[in-house]
Amino acid sequence: MTGICGWASDRPGTVRTRRLLALAVIGLGLAGCQSRSPETTGSIGGLNLLGTSRPERSPRAEIDALAARYNSDPSDVRNAMRYAAALRATDQKSQAAAVLQQVALRNPKDKAVLAAYGKSLADAGRYQEASEVLQNAHSPAQPDWRVLSAQGMVADETGDHARAQSLYDAALKIAPNEPRILSNLGLSYALSRQLGEAETTLRLAVAQPKADARVRQNLALVLGLKGRYDEAERVLAQDLGPAEAAANVQAIRAMAAKRSAPKTAQAADPAPGRQLARTAIQ
Fold it and tell me: Mind telling me which SUPFAM superfamilies this protein's record contains (predicted)?
């Protein structure tokens, strides 16, 4: 079973730190587990509830081949982007950002390159830089909902939930009812202690045809944070076996119990207000 701290993302993750919810919140951000991509949906407190659904790593041979092509022709944008994506997929975030930085320097007006670079910076925890790059990755005249969603994630990571929610709202005007945006918005509401709004938004997200297990995971996490563990378990059981769903609900219970512990007991937490974990749905 995949339990606490593993990103429910499109690539494997490694544990960075475990942070407790400051209120009862979840997932976008800074939190528990390391591997994620900024564009998208998250998990609460570093919990990964997706069981064995995580895709495999890119083969080492493929990365070596991409690296060889990149070294022989760094100006090949398509190959460089594929190489950076493979590096991110194998949790080599700093290297991916370094590759994309060079591509961006050679192609400073390429919006796709800037978007990838900004997301990579956010993936590596370099949020201020990510915010600056993502701002240039699209324009008011031609906004990109994926970039807006990534900007929202960065805002959530830095604690500016009101700005994050305005960015998700702007993204939804371009892509109405897109479950990835709705999921991020729901998580942002949870971060700002609006669990009712979080549940409503995530229920709308899971009702969309394109919603996947990760979106349902976020709803289950919010339900768990509201103390509705049986309902959370039923949601998780749609994608996990009964035993695995039950075990993950126990993990949510433990997280909620730790959150409600006396403040003195929580003082040892290195960053008690920032414990979210985003996942990538690209």
Answer: TPR-like (SSF48452)
At CB < 8 A and 24+ separation, what contacts does 223-227 make?
223/199, 224/44, 224/249, 224/252, 224/253, 224/256, 225/21, 225/24, 225/25, 225/26, 225/44, 225/190, 225/195, 225/252, 225/256, 226/24, 226/195, 226/199, 227/256
Contact 247, 236 (CB under 8 A): no
Q: pLDDT per residue over 234-252, tens digit each?
A: 999 999 989 999 999 999 8
- Provide the token pair at 102: 């060079």
pLDDT band with cut points at 50, 70 and 90 for residue 275: very low
Given a cut of 50, is residue 11 above it in pLDDT? no
Q: Would you tell me which CATH number, out of the four given (3.60.20.10, 1.25.40.10, 3.40.50.970, 3.65.10.10), belongs to the domain 1-56+178-275? A: 1.25.40.10
Residue 30, SS3 per DSSP? strand
Q: Do residues 156 and 29 make contact, with C-beta atoms less than 8 angstroms apart?
A: yes
